Amino acid sequence: MLTVEQAIELIPISISKNLISITPLNSTNNRIYKIQTDKQSFILRLNNRYTDIFNIDRKKEIKVLRNASLARIAPEIIFEDYRKGILLTLFVEGRTWHLDDFEDQTKIRSLVKLLHSVHSLPLCGLKLNPVDLANNYILKLDTNTDSYEFSKICLSIIKNIDYSGNIRCCHNDIHPLNIIQGEHLMLIDWEYAYDNDPMFEIASISSFNNLRKGAELMLLDEYFGGSGNYSMRDYLLQKKLYEAIYWLWLACKQSNSGSNRDSELLLRLKSKLLDQ
């Protein structure tokens, strides 16, 4: 795994020779630095041990990110070497969203416009495979724990939900810290992007951000143009699918971090999955 100093040596000389500051930013799943030169700011993203634990496909990520950047819904790529785990993008001026933004109909309309742009990107050629994801997370769990026992229930839930044939390019990780409100909305952190059902994307937004029923229905209504042309049953199944995957992801992270920070969230998700 490269050090930040080794990565700096590999990025364009026009940047590395004009550095003013390198500031580490908080991140669980990556090593992220804000790089300041005399003219511009950049974000340097490097792998950490979770890249392998979560089986992140950097080559696929870069392919999607290039398309998203060309569509102006993601930061511009300045330099990348996916084999070495280096990604340098232009820093996007703006603020990250807050949970309150999901209650604002004007903001929801902007988000839906962004979602339609994401779902109009070219397919990346790799479909999200929920069973493969689940099995990878389960492999990283301690087998002598209650989490491992419940992981089998999550896997059963995932296997019993039919895979959708409505496939679009999806981000799959839309939460406030990944939404940048600048001149227009942009998304960052595309490492979980796959070809997937847009209904899964919408369901994940609602579940992760714990949207109230009214905000959830507003999001669905705006996405489908008020037509009501969607199946609530299919939506709820995609929500259940997401919550089973998310539980496994959290359990995997907790098992490999030694931290119990997500214990309350794991219990809440477990309760929801058992009640459905």
Q: Tell me the major beta sheet.
A: 5 strands, antiparallel
Oligomer: single chain
Name given to the CATH homologous superfamily of the largest domain: Aminoglycoside phosphotransferase (APH), C-terminal lobe
The string of secondary-structure elements, in order, is HHEEEHHEEEHHHEEEEHHHH
Numbering strands along the chain, what is their spatial order in the largest sheet? 1-2-3-5-4
**Overall radius of gyration:** 19 Å
Topology (SSEs and partners):
Elements: H1 4-10, H2 13-16, E1 19-25, E2 31-37, E3 41-46, H3 49-53, H4 58-70, E4 77-81, E5 86-90, E6 95-96, H5 105-118, H6 130-139, H7 146-159, E7 168-170, E8 179-181, E9 185-187, E10 194-196, H8 198-208, H9 213-223, H10 232-257, H11 263-275
Antiparallel strand pairs: 1-2, 2-3, 3-5, 4-5, 6-8, 7-10, 8-9
Helix pairs in contact: 5-9, 6-7, 6-10, 7-10, 8-10, 10-11
Description:
With about 280 residues, the chain is an alpha+beta fold. It has two domains: about 5-90, Phosphorylase Kinase, domain 1 (2-Layer Sandwich); about 95-275, Aminoglycoside phosphotransferase (APH), C-terminal lobe (Aminoglycoside 3'-phosphotransferase, Chain: A, domain 2, Alpha-Beta Complex). The chain has helices at about 5-10, 15, 50-55, 60-70, 105-120, 130-140, 145-160, 200-210, 215-225, 230-255, 265-275; strands spanning about 20-25, 30-35, 40-45, 75-80, 85-90, 95, 170, 180, 185, 195. Helix 5 packs across helix 9, helix 6 (about 130-140) packs parallel to helix 10 and helix 7 (about 145-160) packs antiparallel against helix 10. The longest helix is centred in the last third of the chain and has 26 residues, at about 230-255. About 30% of the residues are buried. The model has no long low-confidence stretch (mean pLDDT about 95).
